[in-house]
Specification:
Largest sheet: none
Number of domains: 1
Number of helices: 2
Keywords: Membrane, Transmembrane, Transmembrane helix
Radius of gyration: 12 Å
Transmembrane segments: 30-50
Strand content: under 5%
Number of strands: 0
């Protein structure tokens, strides 16, 4: 799997978790927000590796 595909996949999954967490925002919603934050951090790390900065 190409790194660009990994970046897009993790960013989209993070966005999906964040949207789902906003609708729930109870006990499960906070854990979804934490998962979204983790996926956004992973996507940022992969993007940084793609750009070489």
């Amino acid at each position: 799997m190409k790194p660009l595909h990994v970046f897009v996949l993790t960013a989209l999954c993070g966005f999906g978790l964040a949207v789902a967490a906003v609708y729930i925002l109870a006990g499960l919603g906070w854990s979804l927000l934490a998962g979204a934050g983790a996926l956004f951090l992973i996507a940022g790390f992969v993007r940084r590796g793609l750009t070489g900065e």
